[in-house]
Design a protein that fits this description.
This is Oxidoreductase. With about 350 residues, the chain is α/β, with parallel strands linked by helices. It is built from twelve helices and twelve strands.
Length: about 350
């Protein structure tokens, strides 16, 4: 069986090959390709999203390939048309947005993906941002490094940070990441609430979270609002002037989900007026950030370069899970997560 492993500097092709050999045994041919991600930022098109790679180069490699294992490679209709032997794509992401799913389905190609692969990493990172923001850790560090300024004023009562205990965390969306955040924060004695129409109250209570049914009340009660939802037409721009105005004055916003959930101009306005006391953002409406981005004017805003899902454990776990999906497909077993289950045809 001929397998193409299209990786990058995070999901290295050799990780895929090693995991596939362990899963499938010897006797298969492996071709590798690597893109410039994450140094090269994501591309967007009308056909697919969040992709990086040389489509023409990949098309050249496709003849005879039966299995494609990829992370962020552009899997377009043109590429699929150039791959008459392709039977399955195993995408090492929580959502195969870089794959033309309609074209794959029309070609009878099964598309597997790996939800939850980086849930623990993102949850831990989210908590790190919350603590750093509430206690001025980044602000003080920057002052010392850049200007050798001892930030004694941050110890003064009017500027001092707040503890997490006794405060209310609002989880806007409660999938695998939100659940992990809730579990990890149990020992901080926070009140944790969620707004998520896709979970029930019993599920929320099992991890110590109260499900809110009133959206306005949910926003009004949260001292810290953390976003944990997918980007869909419904959620795009959901954090905007209207929703920000419903939040408690002086609340804090954390986003480790998707940048386009927030309308940047409205967030800047909320920060400038004091409606929000600050924000911690790992993702942005437009990436990468440019030097003139207005968010960089606010010392109370923590900005990081889309790192929440990155850990060494994530890379190896993802390679293993991706290979396991290939193994299931080859053996004719049900896939753990298939984006188009109607077309499953084992090799």
């Amino acid at each position: 069986m001929r397998i193409l492993c299209a990786g990058d500097a995070f999901m290295k092709p050799e990780f895929f090959v090693a995991a596939l050999r362990e899963e499938l045994g010897e006797g298969h041919e492996y071709i590798t390709n690597s893109s410039g991600w994450p140094d090269v930022p994501y591309c967007e098109s009308d056909e697919i999203q969040e992709w990086v790679g040389d489509e023409k180069q990949l098309i050249h490699l496709m003849p005879g390939v039966q299995i494609l294992v990829t992370h962020v490679a552009p899997v377009t209709a043109a590429l699929l048309q150039a791959a008459p032997d392709l039977r399955m794509i195993s995408c090492s992401r929580g959502g195969p947005v870089n794959i033309n799913l309609q074209a794959a389905t029309e070609c009878g190609i099964s598309v597997a993906f790996v939800p939850g692969r980086n849930a623990q990493a993102v949850a831990e990172y989210t908590i790190g941002l919350i603590i750093a923001g509430q206690r001025h850790i980044v602000e003080s560090d920057a002052a010392l490094r850049q200007n050798a300024t001892w930030s004694g004023h941050l110890y003064a009562y009017d500027q001092a940070g707040t503890e997490l205990i006794g405060h209310t965390l609002g989880l806007f969306g409660m999938g695998q990441i939100g659940v992990r955040v809730a579990r990890l924060l149990r020992n901080f004695s926070m009140c944790i609430i969620t707004y998520d129409p896709y979970i029930d109250s019993v599920e929320a209570r099992e991890v110590g979270v109260e499900k809110m049914h009133d959206f306005k009340r949910f926003l009004a009660e949260a001292d810290i609002l953390s976003l944990h939802m997918r980007l869909t037409p419904e959620t795009r721009g959901i954090v905007n002037r209207e929703t920000l105005s419903m939040m408690k004055r002086g609340a804090y916003l954390v986003n480790t989900a998707r940048g386009k959930l927030i309308k940047t101009d409205d967030l800047v306005e909320a920060l400038a007026t004091g409606q929000l006391s600050g924000a911690a953002l790992d993702v942005f409406e437009h990436e990468p950030l440019t030097a003139d981005n207005p968010l960089l004017r606010f010392p109370q805003v923590i900005v990081t370069s889309h790192l929440a899902g990155s850990s060494r454990e994530v890379a190896h776990r993802t390679a293993r899970w991706t290979a396991e999906e290939v193994g299931r497909f080859v053996r004719g077993e049900s896939l753990r997560a298939c984006a188009n289950p109607a077309v499953i045809k084992p090799c």
